[in-house]
Write a structure and sequence with these properties.
heterodimer; A: alpha+beta; Cytochrome Bc1 Complex, Chain D, domain 2; Immunoglobulin-like; 3 domains; four-stranded antiparallel sheet; 8 helices; 8 strands; 36% helix; B: alpha+beta; Alpha-Beta Plaits; five-stranded mixed sheet; two-stranded antiparallel sheet; 27% helix
Chain lengths: 289, 320
């Protein structure tokens, strides 16, 4: 490449960068020297970075390349070609640490190691980004659940091609109104069984039922197999209807009985006196006839 | 004079008759919408005809002028009123606000205002700047209605317009409200607002059925307040504010299930553990109102306090 071409490309990149950043962000004041990654990107680190991404970034940026980012708050789709073209892993690392405008700074809340893994994960959507090691292949693992009601034990058996699989993490969730609540993570032993004994009591519905969800922690490696099961292990819901309580200053139908009673007695007695007087007057008139 | 009176009577009769027809029609359309398979209405649409066939309340097919057709939701206003007063069975909704996460992004406020037909200066939820003492650090505090278990607002209402539901939500019926504002005076958290002027986009909402769980359409001269997005909860969705927050401030859930879900990360955790492990508190507990909104203290904050470029409370203006 000639010297002239190099300048051409450099200036083109520069122009693109300025247009891009001027349109979408408040300007990033990128320093001339960026921190270099301490290790080479590998698929293992990318995988770790994905977890960091899910916990910290996905709520605004969505899944990279899917376009489900929150455009309303100027969150970029990190899988987009425009982003990947202008952001090296070093730059991503720096940006995550600094924050800008609507994007918070994660300098303290995410460790440097995690930030590097995160930037490797984000850059893994760039075809030109070099990742060493072997790509982790997903296997379709099978999940079977046996339940012992007496000891409240859940045994999840993990098999791959009908062979027991060791060292697989399985997560147990309870389904709740707005999401699934993680109650335990268990790792499979050499028989491929990940077991969990439920010692804590969890609230269930009126009959004491709750719905259990079992799935692999690492869905990328073992597939998305899930098991749903309704268990009668919960505490029965004792629902106290707060609107049934009678209270002073309550609305008409919830007024305390003693107030209602004394009120009625007073009203009735006053009216009966009036009625008595009227009746007497009429009788008096009749007597005088 | 007599003639005039009679004319007026006729007019009144006409209006009530029209109303009656309208309601009957709406019921008919409602039935037709639910059982749309039976209806040949769409044929008429295709031909661009003026008359349209709908299934009547008694199962008879009727012909109706197309201009009389009005789209209604799956529920009529009466049904919405009924279910809105009742509440959702077996639930007890709670919110936990993590002050250490709030950085005044104000997305909760704009999402709320958008949903409830509010002007930018009207707040069902407001993010306040707070400072406990002079030498402490200021922080931001989102403040919705506290949905007290023992609310003082509902008890002063002379017309039973504002009320508490069995799922813990305090609502107001704008159709019943007479605008006396006793509830505004009674609320120790200043959570209620009054519609002094015509609401935002009044014309746009003219034909919309009043939804008691949404407070929409807003009505001039009535009180409005945070409704915990009761209409969203019915669909199993988190409130507008909690879903809009980019910083993970809001946890929302059901105390009966002992679970709260974060609006940003969608992570679900134990409600009681979250309160115990993070020194949670409620606002003005000495009043005995027992709020359903809990706060987690502003420790280990991720973001420094910054307001209009200043890191202290120097700027005391109340501009939003």
């Amino acid at each position: 490449m000639t010297y002239f071409n190099k300048i051409k490309i450099a200036s083109l990149v520069f122009i693109l960068l300025t247009i891009y950043s001027a349109n979408t962000y408040a300007q990033w004041n990128v320093p001339s020297e960026l921190k270099k990654a301490p290790a080479e990107a590998s698929y293992e680190l990318v995988k770790k970075g994905k977890v960091v991404y899910k916990n910290n970034c996905a709520s605004c940026h969505g899944t990279p390349g899917q376009g489900d980012n929150l455009a309303a708050i100027n969150a970029t789709d990190l899988g987009s070609k425009a982003f990947q073209k202008n952001n090296s892993d070093e730059l991503v690392f720096w940006k995550v640490g600094e924050g800008n405008g609507g994007m918070p700074s994660f300098k303290e809340s995410i460790s440097d190691e995690d930030k590097w893994n995160l930037s490797f994960y984000i850059k893994s959507f760039d075809d030109k980004f070099i990742i060493s090691g072997e790509k982790i292949k997903a296997v379709e693992a099978n999940l079977e659940l046996t339940i012992d009601d007496k000891t409240k034990t859940l045994n999840a058996k993990i098999t791959v091609n009908e062979e027991a699989k060791e060292d697989v993490e399985v997560q147990f969730y309870i389904k709740r109104t707005f999401g699934n609540m993680l109650i335990a993570t268990a790792t499979s032993d050499n028989n491929g069984i990940a077991s969990y004994i439920m010692t804590k009591e969890y609230p269930g519905d009126k009959e004491g039922n709750f719905e259990l969800l079992v799935k692999f922690k690492d869905t990328d490696s073992f597939g998305k197999k899930e098991i749903n099961k309704t268990l009668k292990w919960g505490t029965e819901l004792q629902f106290e209807n707060i609107t049934d309580k009678r209270e002073t200053w309550g609305a008409n139908d919830r007024v305390p009985l003693w107030i209602l009673l004394s009120y009625l007695i007073v009203v009735l007695s006053v009216w009966s006196v009036i009625l008595y007087v009227v009746v007497q007057l009429i009788r008096l008139k009749n007597v005088g006839k | 004079m007599n003639e005039k009176n009679e004319n007026q009577k006729k007019k009144e009769f006409k209006i009530s008759r029209r109303d009656f027809l309208k309601k009957g029609l709406m019921a008919g359309v409602g039935v037709a919408l639910t059982g749309s398979g039976i209806v040949s209405a769409f044929d008429a649409f295709a031909q661009g005809g003026e008359k349209i066939k709908v299934l009547g309340p008694d199962g008879n097919v009727m012909s109706v002028d197309k201009s009389h057709l009005k789209e209604i939701g799956l529920k009529t206003e009466e049904e919405m009123q009924e279910s809105g007063r009742e509440g959702i069975d077996g639930k007890r909704f709670v919110m936990v606000i993590d002050l250490s996460k709030c950085r005044n992004a104000r997305k909760c406020m704009s999402a709320c205002q958008h949903a409830h037909q509010l002007k930018p200066e009207q707040h069902h939820i407001n993010v306040l700047r707070m400072d406990r003492a002079g030498d402490t650090s200021p922080f931001f505090m989102p403040k919705p209605c506290q949905h007290c278990e023992n609310p003082s607002c509902t008890k002063v209402c002379p017309v039973d317009a504002t009320f508490k539901r069995k799922d813990g939500i305090v609502l107001i019926d704008n159709e019943r409200c007479i605008g006396c504002r006793f509830c505004i005076a009674a609320c120790p958290y200043s959570a209620r607002i009054f519609n002094w002027a015509d609401p935002k986009d009044k014309e746009k909402y003219e034909d919309v059925e009043y939804n008691i769980e949404l407070n929409v359409p807003q009505k001039k001269g009535t009180v409005s307040k945070c409704v915990f997005s009761a209409n969203r909860l019915r669909e199993g969705k988190l409130p507008y504010c909690a879903s809009a927050c980019p910083n993970g401030v809001y946890w929302f859930g059901d105390a009966n299930e002992d679970a709260v879900t974060n609006g940003t990360t969608k992570e679900t955790v134990s409600f009681s553990n979250l309160l115990k492990n993070n020194a949670a508190y409620t606002l003005l507990p000495e009043l005995g109102t027992k709020p359903s909104v809990y706060y987690l203290p502003e420790k280990d904050r991720l973001f420094p306090f910054e307001y209009k470029g200043q890191s202290d409370m120097e700027d005391n203006s109340h501009s939003v």
